[in-house]
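PT: before anyone asks, these are the final sequences, not the draft ones from last week. 1333 residues across everything. Please model them as a single complex and drop the result in this thread when it's through.
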Amino acid sequence: MSDTVRPETEDALAAFVAEADSKALPLDIRGGGTKRALGRPTQTGATIDLSGLTGITLYEPSELVIAARAGTPVADVEAALAENGQHLAFEPMDYRHLYGMNGGSSTIGAVAACNISGPRRIMTGAARDSLIGVRLVNGKGEAVKSGGRVMKNVTGYDLVKLMAGAHGTLGILTEVTFKVLPKPEAALTLVYAGLADEKAREAMSEALGSPFEITGAAHLPGDPARTLLRIEGFPQSLDYRAGELTRDLKRFGTPERLETEASETEWQAIRDVVPLAAPTERAVWRISTAPTRGPAVAAAISNRIDAAYYFDWGGGLIWLACAAEGDAGAAIIREALGGKGHATLVRAPDDIRAAVDVFEPQPDALMALTKGVKTTFDPGGILNPGRMYAGV
Amino acid sequence: MQTNFSAELLKDPAMQASEEILRTCVHCGFCTATCPTYVLLGDELDSPRGRIYQIKDMFENEKPASADVVKHVDRCLSCLSCMTTCPSGVHYMHLVDHARAYIEETHDRGVLDKMMRSVLAFVLPYPSRFRWSLYGAMIGKPFAPLLRLIPGIGPRLAAMLALAPSTVAPRSALEGPRTIAAKGERTARVAILSGCAQRVLQPGTNDATIELLTRMGVEIVLPEGEGCCGALVHHMGNETASHAQAAQNVDAWTREIEGEGLDAIIITASGCGTTVKDYGFMFRDDPAYAEKAAKVSDLTKDITEFLEGMDLPEAVVETDAVLAYHSACSMQHGQQIKTAPQKLLKRSGFKVKDVPEGHLCCGSAGVYNIMQPEIASELKVRKVKNIESVEPDVIATGNIGCITQIGSGTDTPILHTVELINWVTGGVRPGALEDVILPGERKAGENPFLAAAE
Amino acid sequence: MTLIAMPEADPTVLARRADIVKELKRFLPETSIIVSEDERRAYDTDALTAYRQLPMVVVLPETTEQVSEILGFCNAEGIKVVARGAGTSLAGGALPAEDAIVIGVSKMNQVLDVDFDNRTARVQAGITNIGISNAVAHAGFFYAPDPSSQLACTIAGNVAMNSGGAHCLKYGVTTNNVLGVKAVLIDGTVVEVGGDWLDAAGYDWLGLLIGSEGQLAIVTEVTVRLLRTAEGARPILLGFDRVETAGACVSDIIASGIIPVAIEYMDKPAIKVCESFAHAGYPLDVEALLIVEVEGSDDEIEFYLDKITAIAEKHAPQSLKVSQSEAESAAIWKGRKAAFGAIGRVSDYMCMDGTIPTGQLPHVLKRISEICESYDLGVANIFHAGDGNLHPLVLYNMNDPAEMVKVEECGAEILKLCVEVGGCLTGEHGVGIEKRELMTHQFDQVDLDQQMALKGVFDPQWLLNPAKVFPLANRPKPAQTGQRVAA
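LR: through. Structure below.
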């Protein structure tokens, strides 16, 4: 690693990227530096530090919209929203626990670029669903915009979505606009104890299929196993819905109730993968599949390797830790998925992440499109090269 | 929608009316979704919007109807589901009627098709001819599989035989012109359309209507000179014949209106009701008939519409039967009668259930089940499946065509609403229930559990 | 005539028409190919009838394999393709081209699989939007996006246009409710993206395909998210004597922390027409009507309605009425959803679809009436107020060519206004043919170039729905026949 550039305007950034492109200088894009270990290790000639591009550029609480420059710390955005009783509904995960970091702060641009969501995704959608506008600099040094500040907008192709989850391989986000929601007045979590994985999945499916608007459904195996269902809203409504749910789910036992603060602590831990953060030397996978297949996939893996895991998203999101040896379980995990879902290696030493497919390999046709799309944004291949896939 | 009719063309009042209809259409496409033929075939050409467009093109350019256009217009059931759906109020019925007449004028259907249509037009509207042909059909039934093999019209002949009942109902004792006095004090005087096919296939319907109404103090007249409403030939595009038949009815009823007076003209087959209610439009440009026809249309009521506002006689029979109500297209779309029959049946003690996809036609549609046997049969299967999904003990409807069509696809008894109402309020037991005992059937007031134990 | 030009047809393709039909017959049944002029005529437009163009041939495939064969053939032969769902586009999204094959998916209308445990349904792309909800309603579920044309429009069209609807204030639009698609690329390759899980792998192909107006691929199967129907829902009607007051009320409701499932707006001309169709009990003496709907249990509904009532009362509404029954609620929505068609009873119209920041509502509504007045054209406003998605219906006489030009100019001015105040040209109907030439008002050339470059990756010869979305000027030169997708 080498030079770090810290542009303070989009123009300066664009000029630098154009120059880098002409020199075929590969660039590493850095926001708050909390997710350096996410994705494949990259070989770059310079680092773009976005911490100079900060500040909330637009916030209209009555229009449920906030825009900020990409380098703005998530905490700043959340604080501004909290003042007006609003929040980022998709509850972005904080990777610092997983990577054993104490300092630093994730940026709002990274939340968009990596499409980072949390448990509430099952109810209110992912980061990409709340992201309604972007500005970016592509690999040619051109400033491009897509979307805007209104939540219904189908004008032109949806590059906003394409940028979400592209991990900076298509463009450097300079400004992002999110739709926001009122923060619920109160939260309540029902905790069922001692359910086996499949039984817990049934309970979660039933709750999620109820009209009571579950905003979190997770299952933590262990002794005893705990199955958590979160509801949010105004207090009177919570009592009513908790009562109805408890009655509907009677066959799964009598739940313990966690009120607002206790509930929040619990869900923050689930969101940030705290249960699997230690031991720090183990590899951690993020596996996405249909909820009904979750328990079987987890069982198929843990039958073959020593793995610890828990479920979020009603059983459809499996966080799994295993030994960081060999391929860190990649082959076994992907075999267990059988193509019906995907697995991402979110924590492992550099050498393993360099050797193993960190992101799910794609079918040939989609890989060809991936390369084609990359070429249109970044013909020189200078933006986070290889971060997601070799050669992209 | 933009139109492009020449001034010359618009001098024709029929063209002018159609142009006005076309101008109200915004081509939004809502109608496609509820059109039975589009639902089955998935081709816009077989949807109302597609047909409207084809008709528009044919009219505007004064083209003789092409075989393609004829095919798609012929496939229209005239169920008028599209008119219920249409937010813009496009009068599809008048447009397609005009197109059918235009097709008859400008298109040569070929010998076999023409012959088939002439035979139907010669037989069906005339009860005695129809009755004799049914005897013939009874003999012909075993040959249906052979007939099917005749190229061109074979499938249609086979369909016709399949629909014919295996026994012919005896003539009603009340057939022929007469007046039937009200029991007790006379509260109203009405004419009942004796009709054509229904009179032969299900004489019980009008008998039950007469029995019920007279008990309710209504005097009934079956006027001299009345016959088929004209719908059968009207839907084949034969305007001359349909207008002649309609005029005959207008004359017959006008004599009564101007004589002892009529409070209503009661129709017991909703298909006929849709047409009679349209007499006013059919004769709008005929100085001799316009006013009389409008008066007739005004007085015309489906039997359930007439009964809705009245007190029914007290029920003497109760049941726990689940009843599926099949709303005929001519009832719900043609006449926009959507709740009266169900309400009456509920008042009469039945557990009434609506049928899923209730807006879709059963495939009967006048002579459609003979002329388009394949589509008609697919619709029948779909309809029966939907009806049976509510697990009914009995099916009620308000149109003879549906009774014949659906009845040929299910073992559950199907009969006219008025026959059930007449029976539970003290009238004769309907023929369709002769060999059937409905669940929990008992005299009114009797303990159902004791009744079941007997 | 009209301000919008169609590109010239390729004479070499037109000359091969008979051979092309013969080739298509190799992989399609007779009933799936429409050749005669009389029959093609019915496919010459969609719900934007101001623009019409007879296609070269129409095909109605019944399987993904057939779609794949057709596209493979078209790609090899350099033949343009216009995909069509139910033809309900108000932006001319399904308008054919003279030298193009129209591929209609209306015969592929089946539900393939419903999975209540995972809350997903896999359907063929030609099923109607409401057909999905109808198939799962018995179990208490529904598919959330509800464009007003939901009775007729297909999920294929919804995916192409990223359709919204009245209830997307709470539930989002198509892109937020689709989990997977099976799509056919221009060279005939069938790809599956996503599935019955919540986030798809790799780049967000779903996000890119949804809303790409049939220009990147043809979708034949869709896996959608199902949601559980709320315990109850009830609309409240709020009538105001001034447009501005209604606008201020919308802002206050949203700022209060309540997210109703829908906030719909109608002005006086629209109210009158819709009431005569639906008999919903709309107040006829108000200038502006809001339909605000909330969901939940009875108690929750009461709670929200009390809060909304309190907010509304600060704005002194002329009328305030809560729906008293399911039938009344159904009639209220029937009137709203049939509004565009119902306006057809009184006049031809051009339906605009710009979105604006909701804070700009009063200003923009005032400007719209001024603009329409300056063209001497009437206007009825019906729109989704909660998210600022406007639908001014500019009234005109379609049989008058001069008014046709006027209405295009007037519409363009309204849409430019939407962009000026921070909004966009189209909120849910798509760019289609209608707004193609206005794209430069919202985007710089570099933005458009980036989008068009993507088009080139999926469809190097620019065969899929070619005349739409991007202005005809400054387009890249398409690849020649024979070059393959994403080499």
